Amino acid sequence: MAKCAFCDANFEAGAGDVLLVCPYCGTAQTTEGTKFKDHYMIRVHFDQHEAQTTLLDWVSKQLGAPEDLPVTAKFVKYEQIWYPFWISRVDARTDYHGMGRDATFHNEWPQRRGAYKRIDFFWKPEAGEFTRRHEINIAGVKKIDEDVRSHPIPTRAKEYFSHAHAEEFDGKVLHSNLTEEQARKMARQIAHDRQTNLVLQEVSKIESRNDDIDVGETFLIHVPVWELVYRYGNKKYKASVSAPTGYVIESEYPRSMSFRAGGIGIGLVMLLIGAGLIILALAEVLGLPFGPLLEGGGLISGSLMAIIGLVLMYKGASSKEAKEAV
Ligand SMILES: [Zn+2]
After folding, report:
1. Which residues, 6 or more positions from 133, have their beta carbon under 8 angstroms from its beta carbon?
2. Distance from residue 28's CA to the centre of ligand 1 (Å)
3. Where are the domains of the chain?
């Protein structure tokens, strides 16, 4: 339990929650009760009904989705979760000295221009610098789906957090497990790693480097996501839809019976052809009178086809739902 330093209400907060948003007055605050001012949100543009329609429309276009899905699917759960993200603008400058790979070419073949008899690789000292502005985006909660964590956030469309707006859709605004201080520290490290990747595109070995990393504007932004569950037949499927953009972040969906049966059929055919190829290849090795029907490789391609066939059959038979990231 926590007590709001601004409206005195008691509200729930977990052990890892360090930057809290009061569910009664919407004030973002530290556990010591200091107000956090750089608190933004992205506005909802897809209400519950629109998010569901968008999702069903998307699902029905997926390969193998049952045709009657949009009319028969029934939504059994819908919740608008406001996930916290820390966004930092980081200005970074790195100058470096290192060793790059280079080569000299000797003895061009007279009949083949551009082809050489000898190529000598050698190390060459190189130096340079990279100046970049990075926008670093760090999820404020540890328990978050990987697809939600990495989905694009249109930070240009940010506005100041409005408690009334989140309440309008009965949104659940999550506290952050990271303080501003921790988020800035992580942003610095991530920017440093990105600079390292830039340098490693130029040199293979870094001998020395100087980094000037300045973590600038850092703010907390709450992003609303519709967490939906729908039922089709006797199974339930989960989906996440971005409330600002209607983007289907991820969705599980059923495959139609005919699609799965098709998978099993193709799998079986491939398995049989594969087995046939293996038999032919073995026959050749054993000297059986089939003649040289195949010039080697029959064993490999046969095995490959048999394996693909088995996988297709397994996938078709498996009742596990499909899940595809967008
Ligand atoms: Zn309050």
Report:
1. 89, 90, 91, 92
2. 9
3. 38-91+133-252, 96-125, 258-321
